[in-house]
Each structure stands twice: as structure tokens, then as C-alpha cells.
Amino acid sequence: AKLTIIDDAYIVQTANLTASSFTKNREHFLYGIDTTILSWLTQVFLNDWYDTAYYASDLHPNIVICPINCRAVVEWLLSSATQSIVIQTQYITDPSIMDILKEKSSLDMQIVVADVDSNDAVLKYFGPDKVKYLPKPYVHTKMILIDDKILLVGSMNMSANSLDENREIGLLTLDAQVIQNFLWQFATDRKASKWRR
């Protein structure tokens, strides 16, 4: 997980606190001051700090926590798409996620991934119209945008280990301005992306 809480604000991020994250990677930071979200994220941190169990029913509907409700939310998001799917992520290796994307391949689908061997299967299956890799900066971000309306940003990769085993934290937003900012950055990265590694 990558979560920062400072006074009355929170940052849900894809970045580790490393030099590479700030100087070499494509990362995203979702900053907010919503008091309800802040309260829930603080409680999530305290539950982990004190090793207190909590469940999907305990979470605010905008908060995504692996392995508690993470897979269910990600699979629901992708399955609910009716027009478009935009993904920028380090890699996609989870079989169930791949199956859902295959089922939705008739939609306007745009995916940008990192230049790593584990993405060879997704690149090969979907081809250059839907999937490209970004040579630089290194894609470490993890974001999903559904129908240009629902955006998920968080620390989770689309892998079984990340979704089912790790503590990861993500946030869903419907904020139109935030979504437009993400789309602008994504379009810039997609333009610089390639297909064949």
C-alpha cells in the first residue's frame, strides 16, 4: 500500500517513496480533503497498526483495500463497462482479469503497460490497437477508468498476488476534473507508447 495522511488531507498514491518514483517512473497521486474519506482511511491505517481485523462491509464504498474487497471491486468495474476501458498499469497477469478484458474487447479499450516480459501475453492477445507499452518513463502507476466516469487509482497491480495476498489501497472517484486530468496524461503517454518490444 502507498497511503499518506497529513493533518486534514490524504494522498492515495501509486508511488513508493523512492528516488525512482519521483524521477524515473510514471506515478499518480490522488490528493483529497474529504472529511469522510479521511476518517475512513485513518481507520484503515489504525486497524492495520493495531492488527485489528476488518471486512468489506466495514469499508466506505469509495475505498478499495486488498485483499479485502479489492478483487471484487476491480472485477466489477471491468465487467460493468459499457463503452470504454482505459488502463495504465505496470502489468496485467491475473487470469480472471484477462478473461474479463477478453469478454469486453469489443469496447473502446486502451491499455498502456510497462515494458516488461510479463506483459508479452496481453500485448500479443489484444494487439497494437488496444495495448501498447511505454518505454519511458517506467509505468509503475495503477489506474483504471471505466466509461470515462469512474476512476480507480491505487497501489494494486493486476496480479493474483497483489489482489489476493497484499495489503493494497485504492480510491474510487467520480470527480470529472480529476478524470479529465488523468485522461490528458494518459493520452500523452499513449502517444509516446509503442507496440513491439
Shape: globular
Record the strand order, biggest sheet.
Answer: 5-12-11-10-6-7-8
> What is the count of DSSP helices, taking H or I runs of 4+ residues?
7
The separation of the N and C termini measures: 29 Å
Assign a percent range to the helix content. Answer: 25-40%
For this entry, give a set of tags.
12 strands, globular, alpha/beta, three-stranded antiparallel beta sheet, 197 residues, single chain, seven-stranded mixed beta sheet, 7 helices
Q: What order do the helices and strands come in, and which of them pair?
A:
Blueprint: E1 3-6, E2 9-13, H1 19-23, E3 25-26, E4 29-32, H2 35-49, E5 63-66, H3 70-80, E6 84-89, H4 95-103, E7 108-114, H5 120-126, E8 131-134, E9 138-139, E10 142-146, E11 150-154, H6 160-164, E12 168-173, H7 176-191
Parallel strand pairs: 3-9, 6-7, 7-8
Antiparallel strand pairs: 1-2, 2-4, 5-12, 6-10, 10-11, 11-12
